[in-house]
Amino acid sequence: MTTGLAHAELIAVLSAVTGDEPRVMTVRSGNALPSGPFELEHRSLQAGLREWVRDQTGHPVGYLEQLYTFADRDRTRENAEVRTISISYLGLVREQAAPGARSPGWHGWYEYFPWEDHRRGRPDVLSCIVEGLQGWVAAEPARREHRQRRVDFTFGLEGAAWNEDLTLQRYELMYEAGLVTEAGSPAHDGQGREMFADHRRILATGIARLRAKIKYRPVVFELMPESFTLLQLQRTVEALAGLTLHKPNFRRLIDQQELIEETGETTSETGGRPAKLFRYRYAVLEERALAGSKLPLSRN
Amino acid sequence: MTTGLAHAELIAVLSAVTGDEPRVMTVRSGNALPSGPFELEHRSLQAGLREWVRDQTGHPVGYLEQLYTFADRDRTRENAEVRTISISYLGLVREQAAPGARSPGWHGWYEYFPWEDHRRGRPDVLSCIVEGLQGWVAAEPARREHRQRRVDFTFGLEGAAWNEDLTLQRYELMYEAGLVTEAGSPAHDGQGREMFADHRRILATGIARLRAKIKYRPVVFELMPESFTLLQLQRTVEALAGLTLHKPNFRRLIDQQELIEETGETTSETGGRPAKLFRYRYAVLEERALAGSKLPLSRN
DNA sequence: CCTTTTATACTCGAAATGAGTATATCCGGC
DNA sequence: GCCGGATATACTCATTTCGAGTATAAAAGG
């Protein structure tokens, strides 16, 4: 009988931003994402993951969102009778202190994806990657044009702008072209650190999701301390997006959205003129239709 | 041993728009969404669902996107040894003709969610629902204020605008307040048709996802015939959003996005002056960074 | 007290948006 | 053959938002 019996596994992409660097919680010295089986006693998938992370790492998880579920025939198990279903989650945590029982490791996103950080200009690795992709483009003459357009679009070449949201598409394109490898294949140097099985792909999914989400939902605040300066907030967004932002316009955007309010205090730890401290207005969660309509509505 | 053995089940929300009415494919005379077990011979979850739908209904599925995965302890199975993991997908199909072996049924979204269709003004059911919700708000004095804000925001009361994207939140709020029921509980009249198990909740998830998505990704075209008029396109978007749109501005929006091009032909089936026919420019898929940055970028 | 550094405030033209009006082209009846 | 009803398409205009840049304020250090 072929009825769908499967192992269920939960995998977490837990991120924080410390010192203007976005980081992810890892196990096995940075080679894998934390994961564990979904057990019978768990109330729900989300609850299962929460408990599991708390037990393993001592970290409280604030925001938690499902990322993706997939089932591949053959991964670690050779057994064809039972398949593994992997359910991945994206979680945001405020700090990385307080390590629990088996203290987790934290690693910068851009160790795994060095081409994704454009804060100090276009990374050098990119020229290397694009060169490799050109080989792939040329490899199949029939699809040449199509592949070229795909590369140009995904990596922001030929007049197209770099789109930070396309992290996953870029990774998948590189994977298709044989420029990056998953688990166990021969390594490519300088194109980012590898991870166990498809964990690097899952991390790419998480990064892409978070980069898209910060634009229309106030999730950045899950990563901020209780009070913060406007520049700290900007640096955090920049770290996630891998881009530098226009300071005056960023501030205008923030305050016209009325997401934050002054605490009344200031800090002079920043060097020059003391900066006002702000806090997130939790009230917005239930107050406003965040992300307006974008459809041209009619009266009546 | 408590290791995570589970049944995997695939559930599909397949939607089409016919005659300006958004519809969903159902089985059991509209009481359930099509679903089936994930089998060992399937290459992947998505492939499994595709095959399965084709076999069962003879329908080709174009666009297909994962919706949500959940695991509940006790649904149909009383057995505590094995749990069911349900993986739901949203699919868009172009037509509803050509029924396959066991021809599927099609039912309008708004049979299940009559309060979600605002094209002909605020539906009457809404006053009924809001009244019911007021009872729930008053029921627990300690949380009164919080609940009231949540109701006002979710249903667009007290100056807040109706937000068509909140379909799922509205359903969940009504569920929490005991106004709608899932499988087998006593029925509430006039508050929409019920469905088997949690299928109605899954449908709400699909509707919400699609309503959000049409705003920043050109997925509507998956529901359109090869060539169409601008008004047909507008009516389709309106059907999905459950809202009426401003015609001149809708057209401006469409053509400044350069998503479509004229076929050169016209149709006079519409009554008055013949309308130009358009077709979707598939090139856009690989051409442009759809959905611009929204972050205030800086030079350099 | 002047320079450096960071913070905050203001300006201005270009583009997008909300709302409405005007013109074109067909059909059917007279 | 012409006129009104119906639908399609085109244009206008004030307002808001957005990209980009400049100016002023308040601390620290020599």
CATH class of the largest domain in chain A: Alpha Beta
The number of E-state strands of chain A comes to 9
CATH superfamily of the largest domain in chain A: Nucleoside Triphosphate Pyrophosphohydrolase
Q: Taking all residues together, what is the mean pLDDT of chain A?
A: 86
List the uncertain runs of chain A. none
Order of helices and strands of chain A: EEEHEEEHHHHHEHHEE
Radius of gyration of chain A: 21 Å
Counted by DSSP, the helix tally of chain A is 8
- Overall outline of chain A: globular
The percent of residues in helical segments of chain A reads: 25-40%
- Beta fraction of chain A: 15-25%
How far is the N terminus from the C terminus of chain A?
A: 58 Å
Q: What does the main sheet of chain A amount to?
A: 6 strands, mixed
In the CATH scheme, what's the topology name of the largest domain in chain A? Nucleoside Triphosphate Pyrophosphohydrolase
CATH architecture term of the largest domain in chain A: Alpha-Beta Complex
How many domains is the backbone of chain A divided into? 3
Most extensive contact: A-B, 65 and 67 residues
The chain-level structural class of chain A is alpha+beta
